[in-house]
User: Fold this.
Amino acid sequence: MKRTSIGSRIGLPAAVAGLLIFTLFPVYWMMSTALDPRASSRGSDILPSGVSFEHFSRVWNEGDFDRYLLNSAIVGLGTILAAAALSLFAAVAVARFRFKFRTSVLIMILIVQMVPLEALVIPLFLQMRDYEMLNSLLGLTIVYIALSLPFAIWTLRGFVATVPKEVEEAAYIDGCTWPRMFWSVLLPLVAPGLVATSVFAFITAWNEFVFAYTFMKDSDKYTAAVGIYQFFGENDTAWGPVMASSTLITLPVLIFFVIVQRRLASGLAAGAIKG
Amino acid sequence: MKESIAAEAALAPPKEPSRPGRASADAARRRKRLVTVTRPWLLLAPSLVVLAGLLLWPLIEVGKLSLQDYEVKFGGGVGTWTGFDNYADLLSNDLLWRTVLPNTAFFAFACVILTVGFGTLVALLLNRLGTLWRVVCSTAIMAAWAMPAVTGTYVWVWLFAPEDGLMSKVAGGLGLIDPETTNWFTERLGFYAIATLNVIHHGFPFVAITVLAGLMTVPKELYEAGMIDGASAWQRFWRITVPALRPIFLVVTILSTIWDFKVFTQIFLMPGGSGSNEEVMNLGVYSYIEAFAKNDYGAGAAAAVMLTLLLIAITLVYIRTLFRQGEEDL
Assistant:
């Protein structure tokens, strides 16, 4: 379908340029403000007035951002480990077995995923307070495991379903038991999907704001997404430090996303189209 | 397709090599049947426990809480049952009808239309590009997608910040506004226009990638036939692309509707969004403020239940759509 009219010869590059500017400009503006020593007064200067890491060092040393990032990383790692294991088991169950109430279980998982966080945060806050689990990284991790599970199960189910049944049968013929087949045959084949799903679980935990903001009242237990709030004033905001900490939060996610983007995109699309 | 094949295969249990001895074979078969029945549930159990404990149970609790007057005292809270008082208060509140619900609904509506529309345009664009530019563009799209809601919101707030922000400077330089006195965040329309931009930037990648995946499945021959018949690009889009991608558009639209109704972080983190400016509240923020700023957990719960019911209604439409598309064997 090669057809070159004047319209498409000019229109296509213009559209690509527009798209790139719209998608990347906020990222550029964030990073360049973080590096600009006179951040708040840069106004409409497209290039930063200089390059310095003073905002980063301020955020890191005075703003305790090293601790917040560590907290976020701990919560994120706990979430992935648990969510990957639980969702893999559940995904194998719904993709490989036919059993009573299977569809009901799937629909329940789907419905539960749609629940707004504001409806969950009130009762969970009261409960965690009664158990004295507020200000606890473990308490937060448990909540994030639950938040990331429905999506993880739903996506992994698609990956498990694409592993040909014949591969499993071959393993049985070779005398494998079911657990052996699971470890040595199914797991390696699903591993790429598992990585993509885990990254998504990590991002869920890393980015989450509502629960972390509500549960974590001690400043040494803040996650990064909440720690940034301290630089933000209603009237006077220190934009340099805010953008420096935003950059620190965004970079890991950006890197992960680009690494798994193809797999994630196809898995997400498959999950969405197939339901 | 693949799934139904896998499902059929799942119906036939794998055959193990037969062992000598009829009695032991019988026992083995019985044990095997027991295992096939219990194994899926054993595999599901941990996930179901977590989901039931942390998602389903709080939903029931929030429903109960919405029927109570809940007071926080030392050593725990005390709830007094008050029937539907919280709902009566909520529904008779002028703020809900004048501000909160219109904000929630119009914002969601605008976001869905614009996200799906823009995402589709981007997908059509990507579909026409060569490999190199498609990779470049989809990586850029991924960067927009990866931007966390928290930091993304701060960047948009910074771009539109009164006086110092880029957009204020540019608009002031063009003589459109007086940057000294203009604050876009204090007005409902300006506030939500910026929030909409933020949500579109964050939400269109999912639409674009999903629709692109769909576009690639539409047979090229259909377009060639259309061209031979003299259909314009516009006609080809509406007569071939749209009908072929109808199911994908439905799913993408409903999912976006669900997501955009419950936008919270992006509103809460904007100036005035965390309750200090009532004009810009949406249902989620209203519920949160009632519960955590005013310590009226019952009223907050009632608003949260309302939002949940709204979302469940949309979700049921979504599930029906999935089933209509012939996914009966999920």
